[in-house]
TrEMBL record:
NCBIfam families: rrf2_super (TIGR00738). Keywords: DNA-binding. The lineage of its organism: Bacteria, Pseudomonadati, Pseudomonadota, Gammaproteobacteria, Moraxellales. This is Rrf2 family transcriptional regulator. It comes from Psychrobacter coccoides. It comes from the Bacteria.
Length: 170
């Protein structure tokens, strides 16, 4: 399982906001992009979605910016990843016709239940109709998400001072 850069950047942005020396002060996207050496335009889309999901508060205007809208202890990593990761199709047999032809926005649940074969688009693997490997992958994916659900943003910023040194004072 590999998460997209989108999820990686979302997590890093939330970490950045959580370890700011003055957490109530406003940050801006340019500062986050510079700190991590990532694209500001790509980060803008991510910050927008995090705002829509209620993780980030945006303040408009000349002195505007962004900050966490929730306490770090209230941001569950598993829930966040399920909301922002575009799909969990580990192998092609996880993909349905709908997800291939018209990708839907990320959902809040992991699609580990398989859709009946007749609803699937033709796939390249000839053993898909009888393959039990997909159930192994489904179990692994469920375990992956379960582990993430055991952690919050607060858990991954326990070394706040060290993170702040690297992000703000280097």
């Amino acid at each position: 399982m590999r998460l997209t850069n989108y999820s990686d950047y979302a997590l890093r942005s939330l970490m950045y906001l959580a370890v700011r020396p003055e957490p109530e002060s406003l940050a801006n996207i340019s500062d986050i992009a510079t700190s991590y050496n990532i694209s500001k335009s790509h980060l803008t889309k991510i910050i927008h979605q995090l705002g829509q999901l209620g993780y980030i508060e945006s303040v408009r205007g000349k002195n505007g910016g962004i900050r966490l809208a929730k306490a770090a202890k209230d941001i569950n990593l598993g829930i966040l990843i399920k909301q922002i990761e575009p799909d969990f199709e580990l192998v092609e047999c996880f993909a349905t016709r709908a997800s291939r032809n018209n990708p839907k926005p990320p959902s809040s649940s992991v699609p580990v239940a398989f859709i009946e074969e007749e609803e699937k688009a033709p796939v390249g693997c000839v053993i898909t109709p009888v393959c039990t490997l997909k159930s192994v992958f489904a179990e692994a994916l469920t375990a992956f998400i379960h582990v993430l659900e055991q952690y919050t943003l607060a858990d991954i910023i326990g070394n706040k001072d060290e993170l702040a040194t690297l992000l703000f004072y280097s």
